[in-house]
Amino acid sequence: ALQLGRPERVAHRRLALRGPERSVGDLLAVGVTAVVVVVLLALPLVTVLVRSFRTPTGWGLGNYVNLGTTGGSNALSVTVWEAGLNSLRIAVDATVMAVVVGGLVALVVSRRPRGRGTRRAVRALDAVFMLPLGVSAVTVGFGFLIALDRPLGLDVDLRTHPLLIPVAQAVVATPLVVRTVLPVLRAIDHRLHEAAAVLGASPGRVLRLVDWPIAARSLGLAVGLAFAVSLGEFGATSFLARPDRPTLPVVIFRLIGRPGAENLGMALAASVLLALVTASVMALTERLRAGAAGEF
How many domains does the structure of the chain reveal? Predict the structure, then answer.
């Protein structure tokens, strides 16, 4: 996770496709990568983008103009733009919760306790927070739906609470935050902590002056990942979203499920909108991370 040696001592192997240094492994890797990128990534995305400009009357921006409506035969209860704003608000809330919880979990799991029982407890904590990745977001959303109807016998129904969807999306995004920050925290040389302690720094000051400047780089990437995952999350959200407060992925699914060329065109345009927002977030995150890495 960290480059602790001098730059001149780090040897980088060059990709050789021609000449005497040509490697069969490099050729095979490039060929497989090209096929995956073109067929499985570029082709579907380009197809959605091109077809989003196709309308029943020809080529144009009609599908994007219709995003301000509720679709053919009032297929939606809100417009796609309203659903997009709702998705952004939910993604911000979910990202804050996922980064706070995931960052704290990564900090705890990165420690090296001496006791055997404590080490087992740390590993168990790590495994518990990885469960959403193992059981799928659909199971998480369905569990929320049936468990929060009069939880623990209380006469209250939490399924309609506005924070329920951000919490569910944060549960799905937290494992990614942990897995992004944890390797960086584990790669910090423990001698830095010991040196700071010898110089009289308290544990809190060590965390602020040693761990935080290093972990901040990965935490920025974790923010982007959590936000992107929350924007596109559908599995858990499909069980919990209310008709008057849908997210953009839920709206796309509802448009696809309704007959009519207008609804299909709106679904394609909404998919392009979701892709552009998500790609912009990830590009900004990578740029900020690269700048922070250059300053470190």
Answer: 2
User: Does some domain include residue 43?
Assistant: yes
Is this model's pTM higher than 0.70 or not? yes
Contact 95, 227 (CB under 8 A): yes
**Whether residues 82 and 228 fall in one domain:** yes
Map residue 55 onto helix, strand or coil. strand
DSSP code of 56? T
What's the token pair of residue 175?
A: 């494992």
Q: What is the mean pLDDT of residues 212-232?
A: 87
Boundaries of domain holding 246: 61-295
Q: What is the pLDDT of residue 1?
A: 42
User: How far from the centroid of its chain's Cα atoms is residue 259's Cα?
Assistant: 31
Q: Is 4 among the domain residues?
A: no
254 token code pair: 């509802």
Report the Cα 31 to chain-centroid distance in Å: 28
Tens of pLDDT, residues 174-200 = 999 999 988 888 888 778 877 888 888
109 alpha-carbon distance from chain centroid: 21
Q: Does any domain span residue 82?
A: yes
